[in-house]
Design a protein that fits this description.
Length: about 300
């Protein structure tokens, strides 16, 4: 069970305010301060300091927060498994990237739930690095990620192979082509994912490999939301580079065209990543099977 001092610490770290944390915990502010003081004595380090804006975590506090979250996640996971010990599998906490919000992943997970007697799925959307952190801290059971992990604590299974393509409006003259060239792309207004996204990184790495640089392109907008990018593309306000899987529905309905870039190969794997002690490997097989059926419809 998570100790009282650690639980109090988590609340203070959440609000960065003793008074607000005390209200949330139904405690007095001096009692909260005393709990934090005792924790600091126990770990032998200051976990919070004050600046002009209020409380901030110290470097040591960040370390304590990392492990406190992991303790809480493990405790919550234990309670879930005990509650569902007579069932085949309990609620699944699955993390996906922003790209996966716009492809068949969410639909496949919904179909998995329906086919398995309404198994509850709690879906979290976040960046790849944050998903890895949550997975390592046992805040997630699975993460569906557009990259491979070198973390020895994780295992993974291939879910899909995807391709980055140039997406554009059917009204764009280039949409009548079978492929676009880099020279043609340089003349277009480009709407791209943020520089921290895996999609953007793969595009830029491929450019460098082919002797090109992102600075040669007219990037008018950086957007982290795939749905927003697709909406702007449909309105013919620019072109983008996104995974084909993220716009399958729009391609089938003729709302967007997706073309390869001549002499460029931007292939990436989508994998289900999980901790090595994940016990329900049959869940992975079912998700992969249902994903394949959903993607082929």
């Amino acid at each position: 069970m998570l100790g009282t001092k650690m639980y109090t610490f988590l609340k203070v770290a959440e609000y960065l305010n003793f008074t607000k944390a005390a209200e949330a915990l139904y405690m007095t502010q001096p009692a909260v301060s005393q709990q934090i003081k005792q924790l600091e004595e126990e770990v032998g380090a200051k976990v919070f300091i004050r600046n002009k804006n209020g409380l901030i975590l110290t470097q040591q506090g960040e370390i304590v927060l990392k492990y406190a979250r992991r303790q809480k996640a493990l405790y919550d996971k234990m309670l879930l498994e005990l509650e569902n010990s007579e069932k085949n599998v309990g609620p699944l906490r699955i993390g996906i990237t922003h790209t996966s919000e716009s492809n068949v992943t969410a639909a496949a997970l919904a179909k998995y739930s329906i086919e398995n007697n309404g198994v509850k799925i709690m879906l979290t959307t976040d960046t790849i690095n944050n998903l890895y952190d949550k997975l390592e801290n046992y805040e997630l059971d699975l993460a569906i990620i557009d990259a491979s992990s070198n973390n020895p604590k994780f295992s993974s299974m291939l879910l899909d192979i995807d391709y980055l393509m140039c997406v554009l409006s059917p009204d764009n003259p280039l949409s009548q082509r079978s492929a676009v060239t880099i020279s043609e792309l340089k003349k277009e207004k480009m709407i791209l994912r943020s520089s921290e996204s895996a999609t953007r990184k793969l595009f830029e790495e491929t450019l460098v490999y082919n002797g090109e640089d992102i600075s040669s392109f007219d990037v008018i907008l950086e957007v982290d939301n795939i749905a927003t990018i697709k909406d702007l593309i449909r309105k013919d306000l620019g072109v983008s580079i996104i995974p084909r899987s993220a716009c399958l529905d729009e391609i089938r309905k003729g709302k967007i065209k997706a073309l390869p870039i001549e002499n460029f190969s931007m292939v990436r794997e989508t994998r289900i990543v999980y901790n090595k002690d994940f016990r329900h490997k049959e869940v992975l097989d079912d998700i992969i099977r249902i994903y394949g059926k959903t993607a082929s419809v």
